[in-house]
Amino acid sequence: MILLLYLCVYLVRADLLFHPALYFISFLPVLAMQYKAAQQSVVAGGTTKDHLRAAFIVFCLSSLMYYVFIHVILTADAQAGIYWQEQRIALTELILGDELPDEALEDMVLPSISQWFFRFIFGLLGGFLLSYIIASFAKTRA
Q1: Please, which pLDDT band fits residue 62 given cuts at 50, 70 and 90?
Q2: pTM for the full model?
């Protein structure tokens, strides 16, 4: 469902594919699915570890699908890569509050598959914490 949203945005207006708002909006269904998985584990009478596992598996699968999809889009469409770089530059300038020097612009190349993998692994750390919070919330609501 979320990948369909990304595909529709890509087909209609590819320059919005890497907008931070789209990323956060698309994360809401993931949170709902994590809660639903943890809640089903609670209803089944599982332990806290089971609730956490259910929510974390949902997070892992959604993150993996996201990174594979984005990597495929960026490698298949050169224009999407340009949009990705423009959005990354704009976001970095917004955070820093200053224009980036030319040396920094040269470093903003498309990530390799190993760089995507490390981003995925690093994201799992935060996903674990989020899954723990969701599992705890589902357990207390039951």
Answers
A1: very high
A2: 0.82
